[in-house]
Write a structure and sequence with these properties.
disordered C terminus; CRAL-TRIO_dom_sf; CRAL-TRIO_dom; 5-stranded mixed beta sheet; phosphatidylinositol transfer activity; about 300 residues; CRAL-TRIO domain-containing protein; 2 domains; alpha/beta
């Protein structure tokens, strides 16, 4: 029904589903994620899919035919799988050379397109946000706006965990406003790791030794000096599921499987207490981002 309704919405607009997106719409797993995101309401799931399919076609999200990510100018890097087969990504604003917010997020979503594989049971994302080198110059309302739009509307049921490494005090102040706008389930998806000990413990519990060691070393390396010695981003096509892009690290398939053989990952409690549940409200009729990406806290922070 969702597929049929989506096709009908295209026809009402005088068009058809773009040929490049027929495979995306035909995949039951994709349709299911949009249905879950809209709480089982078929019409709303179809409207959300319509918006995403148009966006995917306009931004050349073509599965294996998607343009290559720009790792040279952007810092959003796959560094292996966690113990539940979620793919782990590392990002750092200070290591990003690209100044255009839209190009930065195009890179991010092209990386998702090239690394996520439902056929291989790699369907969820763990995002490591490193605040090493972060400053006011990296604060961009344009980035916030695009993130809320693209993640809220075009990436449902994919984010498993967001891990923030040593966020500055100004961020923690803003976080106090953010957390109050989020439901408890969304809040549990966010971890704040402030000390080396917290990072080591979390990395050891969830990632392979290679991934954990690389993340810790990278978070302590001055972004002006690039990445830790041995890092080679050109290795990513081969290392994306195996570990960080490090020279000499070419885990065999058996080793990769060993890292992920224990599918028992459960998001731990956030460092900050979960906020109270928000008042019950009906799902909006239009395709709008979830509360996970609600930016109303920006206005509250100014009051």
């Amino acid at each position: 029904r969702v597929r049929h309704c989506t096709s009908m919405l295209f026809r009402k607009e005088g068009g058809t589903v773009p040929e490049s997106q027929l495979g995306f719409l035909a995949d039951d797993r994709n349709v299911g994620r949009y249905l879950v995101a809209r709480k089982g309401v078929v019409d709303k799931a179809a409207a959300m899919l319509l918006t995403t399919i148009k966006w995917r076609d306009a931004n050349e999200m073509y599965g294996t035919g998607t343009p290559e990510p720009d790792y040279r100018n952007n810092c959003f890097v796959p560094v292996g799988l966690d113990h539940a087969r979620s793919i782990v990504f590392y990002s750092n604003h200070a290591r990003t050379l690209e100044l255009d917010a839209e190009k930065t997020f195009l890179h991010t979503f092209r990386v998702f397109e090239s690394c996520i594989s439902d056929d291989d049971d790699i369907s969820r994302v763990v995002w490591i946000m490193d605040f090493n080198g972060f400053g006011f110059k990296h604060c961009s309302t344009r980035q916030v706006s695009i993130a809320c739009d693209w993640f809220g509307n075009h990436f449902p049921e994919r984010l498993g965990q967001i891990v923030l490494l040593s966020p500055p005090k100004i961020f923690q102040t803003m976080w106090g406003f953010v957390v109050r706008t989020m439901d408890a389930d969304s809040a549990r998806k966010i971890q704040i790791l402030q000390t080396d000990e917290e990072m080591r413990t979390y990395f050891a519990d969830h990632f392979s030794p290679e991934t954990g060691q690389w993340l810790l070393a990278t978070s302590k390396t001055d972004p002006a000096n690039g990445y830790p010695t041995g890092t080679d981003l050109s290795l990513i096509p081969r290392t994306k599921w195996k570990g960080p892009p490090v020279v000499g690290l070419s885990a065999a398939d058996g080793e990769c499987a060993a890292v992920t053989r224990n599918p028992s990952f459960a998001a731990g409690p956030p460092v900050l207490s979960p906020p109270p549940l928000p008042p019950a409200a009906e799902e909006p009729d239009e395709c709008t981002p979830s509360t996970f990406f609600d930016i109303s806290w920006l206005n509250k922070a100014k009051e």
